[in-house]
């Protein structure tokens, strides 16, 4: 049966989860925006005070004062660097997967990372009998971008970001962002348990290790402000004493530390399990099939690929830092940003019973950190960072086929330079490999102006409810915005309507959501939606 032409209805507009799961398990909260009579031109920054309560940045923002050239991303490089995660997954039957190319679909998901996969999983759980099914387009092999390159974290922000969020969007929304980060951790754990996913899932605690006095003062200020505003810090332990912080973290020069609940896992295994589940429910996965253009047809979206054109009513955009390669509206709004990780074989002093009992991030200041986990299954240390090295070369960089030697050298020495008792490395210990991945960062100046009437309507957090609304409802719903503090998703409120944007993540998996209350004198008219 061919797809039925729907007029004059437009395809729905909306936004979804991000990356999942770890720096980034940012992934399973949704946003949905109005899609009837929607006019959403992209505008320059606006200083109207009525817009001050707009959506906060939920992608990790670029540092203030950093210039960004407005140029589109490229499509993913055909030969990305091989990460620790993908190097150990060469037996996967997803590699080289082949399926008949469809020319019609009820829904097309662009991107096979954690966010796109979770979208497919929840949609098909809710709607197993879609007549034309769900199609996933992937430019490379499945799960071969940020999800396969991150640091293996699922590390919620339990206090650190409160003050910056409060400054941007107010107390109520800042509280919701931090609560959502913890909710995401619980959701990841729940999925692992319910689906019986073999992904080396570990649950414990993580440290914010403050390496300078300025960083300590900054984080402590946010911690104190969160307490003052009645934030829940029951699970946060602040270690002010320097000697106690050094003992807890095993870091030589740490000034203070804070610990909180967190987890780590194998992101490729987690995502591939759920992707196979979605395929068992009917998902049609097309690898090496990039979407090259998405155009509005007569009641449909037409998606061009090298293999042909697909006609569909709904598009879920899950391409993270590559967003502007397809949609020019994202140029300068979602900025591709290079990241680099490494794997380290520990010395005997950090092996066996002497392994690290926690994950952590080392902060010189809020904008720069080195993050690491030690895998409970084999002791390998996954370590990433070095953003402050040649930072200009990180921005608008879509090339994950090679690494930056200066960052390689930095990562090679992090353990021996910072950890007490690391010791001399025997042949085969220490640095093993490193790899690159492309993140999606927000340009602080990027604003989308939403002139549509928005109403405060609750949207169910599960994809089943989201998909039903996208499929059947024709009325405005509450705007939701999701992110992974480090690398997340972004909502494209397009004038043409009809896209759901999902972001994946390189690093930890976290999602932040902001739910502005569209009430009172400010109202929704002219509301800013900030990247």
TrEMBL record:
Residue ranges of every copy of the FAD dependent oxidoreductase domain listed in the record: 106-444
Coiled coil: none
Cellular compartments per GO CC: cytoplasm
Protein's name in the database: DAO-domain-containing protein
Organism per entry: Calocera viscosa (strain TUFC12733)
Lineage, uppermost ranks: Eukaryota, Fungi, Dikarya, Basidiomycota, Agaricomycotina
